[in-house]
Amino acid sequence: MSVIPESHRNLFDLPAVWHVATIGPDGEPHSSPVWADFDGTHVRFPHAEGRQKWHNLCADDRVALSATDPATDTRYLEVRGRVVAWESDVDLGFLDAQSLKYDGVEEFPREHIPPGQVRLIAVVEPLHCTTMG
């Protein structure tokens, strides 16, 4: 049984921007917006190897994500958990699916991906949730 309540799972179906909080190398918080999805068990978000969030999560797998309903700013979901895997997105299939959901564009613009960049999917095991609305 998922810790993510059924009442708020639809936030993953909406183009809600998720803010991911990680712990930096000196213990400082680091937060940045991402696209995210929920597969019924894990929260997943696209990322690139070598970025600060990736370094932070490789050193300390604890993570928090939160999003506000785009239609109702008093409704939100916070998910706290751990990154349990990094999956390859070499074919950019996950990134393309998120691009369609968020921007209505079937293919993420390839020119936004630097040559040689390794695209990954962070797989998060939800351990605790907080909701409102």
Descriptive notes:
This protein has 133 residues and is mostly beta strands. The protein has a single domain, classed as Roll (Pnp Oxidase, Chain A), CATH 2.30.110. It contains 2 helices and 7 strands. The chain has helices at residues 52-59, 93-103; strands spanning 18-23, 29-34, 37-38, 43-48, 62-69, 72-88, 119-132. It has a 7-stranded antiparallel beta sheet with strand order 2-1-5-6-7-4-3. A hairpin with a 5-residue loop joins strand 1 and strand 2 (29-34). The longest helix is centred in the last third of the chain and has 11 residues, at 93-103. It starts with 17 loop residues before the first strand and ends with a strand.
Keywords:
seven-stranded antiparallel sheet, globular, Pnp Oxidase, Chain A, 14% helix, 133 residues
Distance between the termini: 22 Å
- Radius of gyration (CA) equals 14 Å
Task: Describe the sheet with the most strands.
Answer: 7 strands, antiparallel
CATH architecture grouping: Roll
Fraction of residues in helix: 10-25%
Query: Could you give the order of strands across the largest sheet?
Result: 2-1-5-6-7-4-3
What is the 3D form?
globular
Number of helices: 2
| Count of spatially separate domains | 1
Helix-strand string: EEEEHEEHE
Given this structure, which CATH class is correct? Mainly Beta
Structural class: mainly beta
CATH superfamily: Electron Transport, Fmn-binding Protein, Chain A
Uncertain segments: none
Which fold name is given in CATH as the topology?
Pnp Oxidase, Chain A
- The count of strands amounts to 7
The portion of residues forming beta strands comes to: 35-45%
Integer average pLDDT:
94
